[in-house]
Amino acid sequence: MAKRKNKKNSRAYDKYIVVSFADATLVLSVGDTVEEMGKESGFLTNAPTLACSALGHDGGICQVHPAGVRHIHKGRAKQWHCPGLKRIECASANESQVIIALAGGEVIYFELDPISGNLTESKTKDVGADVCSLDVGTVQEGRSRSMFACVGCRDQTMRVVSLAPGKLLDQKSSAALPARPHSVALQYVPGSDGGADEAILTVGLDDGSSLRAGVDPVTGAISSSPAKRFLGARPVSVSRITLESGPATLLLSSRPWISRPDVAGGTHVTAPLSYAPLDHGCSFKNAGE
Fold first, then answer.
1. Which of 33, 90, 123, 258 is least crowded, fewest Cβ atoms below 10 Å from its Cβ?
2. Helix, strand or coil for residue 64?
3. Backbone angle region of 251, left / alpha / beta, with phi > 0 → left and psi within -120 to 50 → alpha
4. Would you call 131 helix, strand, or coil by DSSP?
């Protein structure tokens, strides 16, 4: 995982690498050299990290671990604890929003208060099925929040829920899947002929295949004709990345793949990488780029 920090001139770069293990978290500071950080990182290091993100321009850092949500701000850490004996199964975060799923299908949404700088619990909803993958989406330029989140469930369904004020976690659409979803990413790509950005939903499945479908950026409706492709013998992990300054998707199965829009040709290209199998990947941009 890479954590994004924003400079005052709005240029974004990655300052930390966060590596999650089965029972621990390692935080690396990246500058002229790469150095391991200790307690000064504010992270809970004796537990795995399910999701993390820098929050706002000075909103601190969010770490989601199985027992709760940790907000590290100005050298202090605030902790939201899971109720009772429940544990977080999966999570997703961007610069202003965090969404988690507890065992049993309970989804909880948090949002950064731009005035107080606090990360507050805003809405809880039971989706009626165990959740196995989540994506809170990205915040488009000129907006303060992602308008939709994607929820993948063990009943082989994918649901798009609203993150708009007053409609938090209302289901906007759903789609039946041919296999259980392993991971999901909602990404905005340049529209054809220079039009408005298009929302693309990519789902990695347990059977080693991926699905790509359009999502209506206004209604949240999932297109009825997704493109499916078999990628390998392992469940597919999906990550948003940037390639040649444009949006792309990294898909990892028994071999790695890149999926990206071909704006000039008006198509979408998915191609294998000539590289060893990978378990996880993410974009990284240093301060010099």
1. 33
2. strand
3. beta
4. strand
Q: What does residue 4 show for φ and ψ, rounded to 5 degrees? A: -100, 125
Q: What angle do CA 231, 235, 239 make, to 5 degrees?
A: 80
The sheet carrying 119-126 orders its strands as 88-93, 97-102, 106-112, 119-126
Rounded CA-CA distance 108/91 in Å is 10
> How many CB atoms are located within 10 Å of the residue 63 CB?
31
Q: Within 10 A of 185 (CB to CB), how many other CB atoms are there?
A: 24
Nearest-10 Cα torsion for 195, 246, 186, 189: 10
Q: pLDDT tens across 78-137, in order? A: 999 999 999 999 999 999 999 999 999 999 999 999 888 899 999 999 999 999 999 999
Q: Please name the residues in contact with 4: beta carbons below 8 A apart, sequence gap of 6 or more.
A: 12, 13, 14, 15, 53, 54, 95
Least-confidence region, from 1-15, 64-78, 116-130, 261-275? 1-15
Using alpha carbons, select from 130, 129, 109 the residue that is nearest to residue 120: 109
| Mean pLDDT of the region 17-32 | 93
Percent above pLDDT 70 for the chain? 92
Contact yes or no for 91/99 (Cβ under 8 A): yes
Task: Kindly state the average pLDDT of the residues 174-198.
Answer: 88
CA distance 35 to 33: 6
Q: What residue has token string 């978290």?
A: 25
Closest Cα partner for 246 from 161, 186, 165, 189? Answer: 189
Q: Is the pLDDT of residue 7 over 50?
A: no
Q: Beta strand 88-93 with 76-81: parallel, antiparallel or unpaired?
A: unpaired
> CB of 226 within 8 A of CB of 213?
yes
**Coil/strand/helix, residue 73:** strand
Q: Is the pTM of this model over 0.85?
A: yes
* Nearest partner of 77 among 55, 60, 96, judged by Cα: 60
